[in-house]
Amino acid sequence: MIDIVEIDPVVISASTQAMGFPSYSIMRKHGERSHSKPNLIEKVIWNDIHKRLFLYEADAEKFITESSNIYDMVFVDAYDGDDIFPRKLWDPDSIFLKALGERVHPEHGTVVVNLHSDIDIVGESLLPMGKYVSQVCKAYKKVLLDDFESISGLAFTVHAPWVCNASLVVSRGFRNGTCDTVLNTLISKSLEVENTLNLPFSCLQYIKRGLMFVD
Question: What is the DSSP string of 94-159?
Fold first, then answer.
């Protein structure tokens, strides 16, 4: 089961009307699908995957605090039209982060956060970790890992300097893992993903050039 939460109805409309996302996934506020059955094109393109998708028009904070589900993986991409990541979605004392910590699987749960650079690129060096982005990374690590004595894990960022983006990954379950062992695991798994999905690009360039661990 995959829950998708989007607060802007315009984005939802664009995703289903112009980007091919299945309209069958859209949920009504009382918990029923907006369409009783998928159309033929969605059946062919999505090959039954659409049955596992549940797209909610909702505020992320309200959704996660009211949810009773335990998630294996959560993706957070919350920048608004002004390129601002709402503070309530990254403040270490926020309701959202506290609730997220309880809803992510304690043994292997992983949270991936899309981040935009808040500082200019210097030459061809790695995307600098600006003050704002650094605060977000430390907040997620603190709430999802450090605040739980019984939970082990690590946090790292992978950068794509030429598009000014970084992905923060906070993953539970790594026990006594050194930076080298984690790096080797990421390289191995990235090759596996490339081969499985037959990607037209290599993931290694991001791991080798832009991997940074969050202290």
Answer: -HHHHHHHHHB-TTT-EEEEEEE-SS---TTSPPP--HHHHHHHHHHHIIIIIT-TT--EEEEEEE
